[in-house]
Amino acid sequence: MKRKAYGRDAGLTLRMLLTSSLLGLLYVAFALVLFYVFNAGLVLMVVIVGGMAIFQYFTSDKLALAASGAKIVSPEEAPKLHALIERLAAMADLQKPRVAIVDTDVPNAFATGRNQKHAVVAVTRGLWERLDEKEIEGVLAHELTHIANRDVLVMTVASFFAMIAAVLTRFGLYAGMFGGFGGGNRDSNNNSVPVWLIVVAVSVVTYFLSWILIRTISRYREYAADRGSALITGAPEYLMSALQKISSQMTLIPRQDLRE
């Protein structure tokens, strides 16, 4: 099955474009306000946070694997899982990603990596043990669609200015506590609003609104991945069954070690 067989959802695409446009307008307004406050000072901040975003983008697979405790496994170590992913990747016209297993009882799976060459699909032991093969196929096809749609890149770009807003909020609070905001060029009379307070207020509003819009984009990407899973497997009911089974069994997993 070629990638074009994923199909197009005009409504979903339109909502994605609308949300992305709103996010872009929010970031433009944020940048204009901060340029007015900082003048050239913002350039350095953008360079620093831009470097952070680039680092996150190029190391996303390593960071995700390290954070989750996932271990890359060979076909000899997990032959059945490798065979499933290889077959589904071929059906989706994708390069086979690396395969990882997370040794946890929590049923989950995720895909990471900036492109197909660096992509990884990770599956937890809990998911592998709780779902049957068809349900696992539905989940894996969902994750492969994330890779095909380059969702790591999409979310990195979408969250770029949210990262700036978060950094500036903290930076502004520190500046307020320790006396001023370096680089501000406001008149220092008693009636003027402190520069650090303006920065914090604008950054908090930007971060809050961008968080809502990013969550919306993320939800739309999940819808697109669900659609891709249905088109790759031809059986959307298996993904639905897997999600229902996962959500119903999550409450049965103890949050603490019962041996303690």
Describe the structure in your own words.
- With 260 residues, this protein is of the alpha+beta class.
- It has one domain (3-29, 60-250): Zincin-like, CATH 3.30.2010.10.
- The protein is 66% helix and 7% strand.
- The chain has 10 helices and 4 strands, in the order H-H-H-E-H-E-E-E-H-H-H-H-H-H.
- It has a 4-stranded mixed sheet, sandwiched between helices.
- The protein is elongated and about 65 Å long.
- The protein starts with 9 loop residues before the first helix and ends in a 10-residue tail after the last helix.
- Mean pLDDT is 76; it is low at 1-7 and 181-188.
CATH architectural designation: 2-Layer Sandwich
Query: How helix-rich are the residues, as a percent range?
Result: 55-70%
Question: Looking at CATH, which topology would you report?
Answer: Zincin-like
- Spatially, the strands of the biggest sheet line up as 1-2-4-3
Low-confidence stretches: 1-7, 181-188
The CATH H-level homologous superfamily = Metalloproteases ("zincins"), catalytic domain
Mean pLDDT: 76
User: What's the domain count?
Assistant: 1
Give the overall silhouette. Answer: elongated
Distance between the termini: 51 Å
The biggest beta sheet is recorded as: 4 strands, mixed
**What's the count of strands?**
4
Tally the helices: what do you get? Answer: 10
Q: SSE string, helix = H, strand = E?
A: HHHEHEEEHHHHHH
User: What is the CA-based Rg, rounded?
Assistant: 22 Å
